[in-house]
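Blackboard transcription, Thursday session:
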Amino acid sequence: MEREQEFSVSCPIPLQRYPNITLAHGAGGKLMHGLIEELFLPAFSNPALDARHDSAVLSHGAVNFAFTTDSYVVQPIFFPGGDIGSLAVYGTVNDLAMAGARPWCLSAGFILEEGFPMEALWRVVQSMQQAAEHVGVCIVTGDTKVVDKGKGDGIFINTAGIGVIERDVSLSPQRVQPGDVLLLNGDIGRHGIAVMAVREGIDFETEIESDLAPLSGIVGALLEESPEVHCMRDLTRGGLATALNEIAQTAGVGIEVDENRIPVREDVQGACELLGLDPLYVANEGRFITFAAPSDAERALCVLRAHELGAGASIIGSVTDSSSSRVIIRSAIGVPRILDLLSGEQLPRIC
Amino acid sequence: MEREQEFSVSCPIPLQRYPNITLAHGAGGKLMHGLIEELFLPAFSNPALDARHDSAVLSHGAVNFAFTTDSYVVQPIFFPGGDIGSLAVYGTVNDLAMAGARPWCLSAGFILEEGFPMEALWRVVQSMQQAAEHVGVCIVTGDTKVVDKGKGDGIFINTAGIGVIERDVSLSPQRVQPGDVLLLNGDIGRHGIAVMAVREGIDFETEIESDLAPLSGIVGALLEESPEVHCMRDLTRGGLATALNEIAQTAGVGIEVDENRIPVREDVQGACELLGLDPLYVANEGRFITFAAPSDAERALCVLRAHELGAGASIIGSVTDSSSSRVIIRSAIGVPRILDLLSGEQLPRIC
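(Written on the board underneath:)
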């Protein structure tokens, strides 16, 4: 008892208010950020972690490596445009790409629930391997655990990835500065809607496919052409709005975006209205934002548009010197409003 | 449907016999090895993975790295001598050590169940950090997912680790050869019994504590003194018997061990009899075997015994040129028997 009391006194999360983990603690909004900022980061603090990047950047000798991890708990595990296997490969590859790294190798940790169909496991494993071959990365080490029926949910996959930062680039939220131009590589919201449609059993007129795609190719093309890129971030849990807020807070800058310039497909917009979702907060798995120096922004846009994953790229805003670290969005008729982190969850188990 | 059929035809596991995942597929015995050898390894095949080592060994320039992953699903999460947090750090550190690597950095992926007590999370996180500091490794990147109540079991943790192989050593099952001497660093079975005692609510006269410990220090000492070490393996899921069988099969050699020389504490032996377990198959988290050239075996034993984690070290057997890849154990009265992999599970969710 004494030991428990000692721990509970020092727990940095107010236990009376949040005695237990809620779904919102994993959904990308304010509670999740509180958990990370108040509990995980102070406990584990070290320079690589404190950089709050998608990947940790580590130096060994003259070589810089990127290292990242993600667990995938998406439900359902098969969805239009992908499955938990391809997601587990591309999701982690994309986090490496955001640090400017060429993906080198992946680990795969499976947590299977007793009773999970062997044939589904086989489909997922094949999908992982196809995805890995597509980006030229190997799954070099793995682990399998099985938990009792009712103590898991079919399959969870963790992948960790190591990438090699070959170019002389330094990408991080801290490098974002006032004046930077903000680019987005295409329309938003498709991954979240594709998963939700299957989960909720909704049939849209046309099937909406996830935008799931590996971003290492387009990022490689961009970095080769346009060295004055300061930061990139992929728009996963919590969508565009969350990524913008994370960067604004870490960099200590303001960000202004123009809603008119953010592409949302009509069917996605319709589905969002039906489901009561804001596409700005819906998860993507093949979309990322780039902060570029103003002088290089047009060049960056050209490179993005020349790549199949950036055909719909646009400049959507810029960085301001507001010290409030706020994200402001101007609506279609030019009215500004604050785009904040969500308080609770919008879409649990979307990745 | 057609797509499903196509996949199911080619699934390498006989689906009529094993249509679904069972607990035994994760318990370290024959079914788990079948799943790895027939499904995962052929699908993901590459030289680093195919080496079947605890860690993948990867070269970049002149530097060799070790990379490994494990998910931890132990139940209960707090047990005498440790908890899921320290286990997640030391377990992965030990896999790096088995490749002769100095642990460099870890990732941490949390899968939390809705309703998990915040204070327990805080205790686990503190325990992870203490363990990481103890071995001088940093947790540099992480991820948190939350799943709905009833779709998880409190907390699962995945850690992946990168280590640097600084010495000119090459440790792998393939290097094990006839004549090699087999060393063990201490008594076996304590981790499994410590966890099972709490799970089953059994009170022993004296509390049996897990042997959970980081092996990077003792391995470093060994490698510094004794270069003719061919392979090491820690004795986790499936215990000593499983590790011996894995090595015998991968190396294509026979192994003979002497039951008299394998230390089992009296209270552990008693608990095993009570629970119907064979200590040779019970999990450890601070025990490992070393295959050394005969000329260096005594020197290796001295180094092990000089370290606090090897005070009870002994030579327990040797490698033979039997082509059957069998493990033979001689009982107390000298009668030989085959020590095989278990068919089913002995202890699910022990790590």
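Lecturer's comment: Residues 1-8 of chain A have pLDDT under 50 and may be disordered.
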